[in-house]
């Protein structure tokens, strides 16, 4: 009888531990999805800012755009009027867009 109680208890403990681990992984994935979306939108904003600066000859610094989330950052690189690269970062997620100019 004691052995049956120990076996059933250990089985319940194992199943509960696995369920807790899977739930934790799903919570992490959902927060990473949010950070990924923020990084994509930040990279898009950087690319659009560089397009505006390129075609309107504006003196905007596209690397200093401000977002509502202070952890969201942007970095843009313009290489000799051949391509524009925009990198958006939010927490640990990083996404980038590149646009080439062909003559």
How many strands appear in the DSSP assignment?
3
Which band does the percent of strand residues land in? 15-25%
Number of helices: 1
Oligomer type: single chain
Give the structural class.
alpha+beta
Mean pLDDT comes to 88
SSE order, as H and E? HEEE
Specify the helix fraction band: 40-55%
- How widely separated are the two ends? 83 Å
Main sheet: strand order: 1-2-3
- Overall structural domain count: 1
Shape from CA axes? rod-shaped
Please sum up the structure shown:
The chain has 103 residues and is an alpha+beta fold. The protein has one helix at residues 2-56; strands at 72-79, 83-90, 93-100.
Please characterize this protein's 3D structure.
The chain is of the alpha+beta class and 103 residues long. It has one domain (2-100). 53% of the residues lie in helices and 23% in strands. It contains one helix and three strands. The protein has one helix spanning 2-56, and strands spanning 72-79, 83-90, 93-100. It has a three-stranded antiparallel beta sheet with strand order 1-2-3. The chain is rod-shaped. The model has no long low-confidence stretch (mean pLDDT 88).
Features:
103 residues; alpha+beta; 3-stranded antiparallel sheet; 1 helix; 3 strands; 53% helix; 23% strand; rod-shaped
């Amino acid at each position: 009888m004691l052995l049956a109680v120990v076996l059933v208890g250990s089985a319940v403990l194992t199943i509960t531990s696995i369920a807790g681990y899977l739930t934790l992984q799903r919570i992490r994935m959902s927060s990473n999805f949010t950070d990924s979306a923020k990084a994509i939108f930040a990279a898009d904003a950087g690319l659009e800012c560089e397009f505006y600066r390129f075609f309107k000859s504006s003196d905007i610094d596209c690397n200093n755009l401000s977002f509502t989330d202070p952890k969201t950052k942007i970095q843009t690189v313009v290489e000799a009027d051949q391509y524009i690269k925009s990198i958006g970062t939010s927490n640990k997620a990083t996404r980038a867009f590149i646009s080439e100019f062909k003559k």
